[in-house]
Amino acid sequence: GAVVSQHPSRVICKSGTSVKIECRSLDFQATTMFWYRQFPKQSLMLMATSNEGSKATYEQGVEKDKFLINHASLTLSTLTVTSAHPEDSSFYICSAASGATSGNTIYFGEGSWLTVV
Amino acid sequence: AQTVTQSQPEMSVQEAETVTLSCTYDTSESDYYLFWYKQPPSRQMILVIRQEAYKQQNATENRFSVNFQKAAKSFSLKISDSQLGDAAMYFCAYRSYYGGANSKLTFGKGITLSVRP
Q1: E strands, chain A, where?
Q2: Of chain A residues 29-68, which have a CB less than 8 A from chain B?
């Protein structure tokens, strides 16, 4: 089946620095990628939807200047957490949609644990 | 806006027994997709089963089957012959037919399933 790879799986950064998380679709072209944040024992919270070559669409309450999303190609989207603080520590998951219709499957990356110290 | 409700936060089942996880949703749309995702301790999101709203026949995947009641907006997951590896968090999700690849998944809060040996 289709694979979405997310990197790094775990990252620790110092407060005030920026960290980048990559999401790659390995064997299909991802028209759309989604970024989620998940707190322990809670559901996935959609942060933003990104389309290749376009600005990401952020969900209400998500700081677009803090969580920079770039979808430079049909196989790569990145999430950069800028000026990270301990409250940004979380599990971040990306997913990618293949094809142009909503009937196509959405595939998830393995997720990235971010710890800000 | 669509909502997905999973009212049971936790359930437990004896190995080899059958368990049913409940999910209800609210929508004004007639065309949509419903999903059950499994998230084991590894945190990888795994698609368990999907149902197209226009299909009257309930979807089945090996030991997993759904009871889709469109009029009642109910979408329960039945796991037969439960195995230790079924222990995970399970999320019910809705995806609108409209919006193409940008159509996002709306998740329920999830249910933690434990399997007793």
Answers
A1: 4-7, 10-13, 19-25, 30-38, 44-51, 57-58, 67-73, 76-81, 90-98, 106-108, 112-116
A2: 31-32, 34, 38, 41-44, 46, 49, 51, 57
Cα torsion at B102, B94, A97, A1 (round to 10°)? -170
Name every chain A residue with its beta carbon within 8 A of the beta carbon of B103: 102
pLDDT confidence of A2, banded at 50, 70, 90? Answer: low
Residues B11-45 have pLDDT tens digits of: 999 999 999 999 999 999 999 999 999 999 999 99
Give the minimum alpha-carbon distance from A112 to chain B in angstroms, rounded to a whole number. Answer: 10
- Taking CB atoms and an 8 Å limit, are B100 and A108 in contact across chains? no
> Distance (Å, rounded) from C-alpha A5 to C-alpha B31?
31
Tens digit of each residue's pLDDT (9 = 90 or more) over A24-79: 999 888 889 999 999 998 999 999 999 988 889 999 999 999 999 999 898 999 99
Q: Do the Cβ atoms of B100 and A93 come within 8 Å?
A: no
User: What is d(CA B47, CA B44) in angstroms, rounded to the nearest whole number?
Assistant: 10
